[in-house]
Write a structure and sequence with these properties.
This protein is α+β, with helices and mostly antiparallel strands. The chain contains 9 helices and 19 strands. The longest helix has 22 residues. The protein binds flavin-adenine dinucleotide. Flavin-adenine dinucleotide binds next to strand 1, strand 2, strand 13 and strand 17.
Length: 365
């Protein structure tokens, strides 16, 4: 989100832009690492459907054109789960938001997504789904910012923001920066820099498994993205092809022990074993887990993002709490954060319509 904001600021012609990152681009403890992310328009809240439609229509293509690269590979999207469970709310959101996604009969779903068992499931087919090349997105924006003269400071940790003077003093382990305006997009570390976020953010490390099969040709879980929607928010699993030989899958964990983003990013065998059980239960083909890794979610109670101006200082803009589903919005969030930082408002109507949901103090109706 920080890189995307840098891009948004250069798009607005802001002259002197600096990005500060404590580690490297795509490092293992951050939330944006790894090779792929799912793109989808299927959401229970039609506001996110509309924001995603705008991002796919406008912002992603603009970024792709500037990078000279295609960043999203289209894939069918399969959203499945027990009738009467979360899938009903997603079907409702899709219908209200006008997403290009539809409920399909079980026999049609079994033909489309033949590697899944789908027994007793309701299924939504999302025609807008895809696999985002997360690696190319990160490196592409990074290179573009360098080419545009952005001051990229990698391996520099911000320790404090001093807001007492006419300019904000950003103290780091490599010295001080003085800034007219600051955008904080610090992922799992956001509340350390801005304590106002402390009551809103929960960090949960995710354990991601990578599965292979000796029996199939092509992506072992099928060449589609999928999300299993159980009966509660804790019963969500998802996956997509990492490459031709590997299925990436994970449990969308947003409860239980709160994690410290500075802890060593070790996988937890018990959580991986329960992911293995899910895969064995839902896939027709035998899949065996090879690698695994972890990546933190920074979630809000409602899974709504925080995209807002600081309540006590309009020189600071905040992008946080991307709740395990932010990557697909990165370019449009970058544009919105850049607009909020420079003018206090956004030209993206889809964002303005949902701004009450994304405030620092929490969603208001
Ligand atoms: C396993 C997993 C799967 C996911 N799958 C999907 C998906 O399929 N589709 C989707 O849309 N989204 C997905 N997401 C969510 C998405 O990846 C995140 O919402 C998004 O990457 C969050 O980006 P961010 O910039 O907020 O955080 P980060 O990428 O963590 O960036 C914050 C950066 O700030 C730096 N930082 C923090 N504090 C300081 C400091 N004091 N000084 C300097 N630098 C600092 C950190 O080092 C970090 O690099 C997934 C997330 C995970 C973990």
């Amino acid at each position: 989100m920080g890189l995307a904001t840098g891009w948004g600021l250069t798009e607005r012609g802001v002259g002197r832009v600096g990005v500060i990152e404590q580690a490297t681009i795509g490092h293992r403890r951050g939330s944006s690492n790894g090779r792929v992310r799912i793109a989808r328009t299927t959401y229970p809240n039609p506001d996110y459907v509309r924001l995603m439609q705008r991002a796919r229509r406008d912002t992603w293509p603009r970024l792709e054109a500037q990078l000279g690269a295609s960043l999203i590979r289209r894939l069918p999207g399969c959203f499945f789960g027990p009738e009467g469970g979360l899938v009903e709310a997603y079907a409702d959101g899709v219908a209200r938001g006008g997403a290009n996604a539809e409920r399909v009969t079980l026999s049609r779903a079994k033909a489309l997504f033949s590697t899944l068992k789908l027994q007793g499931c309701s299924v939504i087919h999302d025609h807008t789904a895809g696999s985002i090349d997360a690696e190319d997105t990160r490196h592409g924006i990074n290179a573009l910012l360098r080419a545009r003269g952005v001051d990229l400071n990698l391996g520099v940790q911000v320790q404090q923001l001093d807001r007492s003077g006419p300019r904000i003093i950003v103290s780091t382990d490599a010295g001080e920066f003085s800034a007219e305006r600051v955008v904080v997009a610090a992922g799992a570390w956001s509340a350390r820099l801005l304590p106002v976020l402390l009551p809103r953010l929960m960090v949960h490390r995710q354990d991601v498994g990578y599965y292979q099969s000796s029996l199939t040709a092509g992506p072992p879980g099928g060449d589609f993205a999928w999300v299993f929607l159980g009966r509660t928010d804790d019963e969500i699993y998802y996956g997509l092809p990492e490459d031709q030989d590997t299925l990436k899958a994970a449990h969308h964990r947003r409860s239980g022990t709160i994690d410290d983003p500075d802890d060593p990013p070790h996988c937890r065998p018990k959580l991986l074993a329960s992911l293995d059980d899910f895969i064995a239960h839902h896939f027709r083909v035998p899949l065996s887990r090879g690698d695994a890794n972890t990546c933190p979610y920074t979630s809000t109670e409602t899974d709504d993002f925080i995209v807002d101006v600081h309540p006590d200082d309009d020189r600071i803009t905040i992008g946080a709490g991307f709740s395990g589903h932010g990557f697909k919005f990165a370019p449009i969030i970058g544009q919105i954060l850049a607009e909020l930082a420079t003018t206090g408002r956004s030209t993206i109507d889809e964002f303005s319509a949902m701004r009450h949901l994304l405030s620092v103090s929490g969603p208001s109706s």
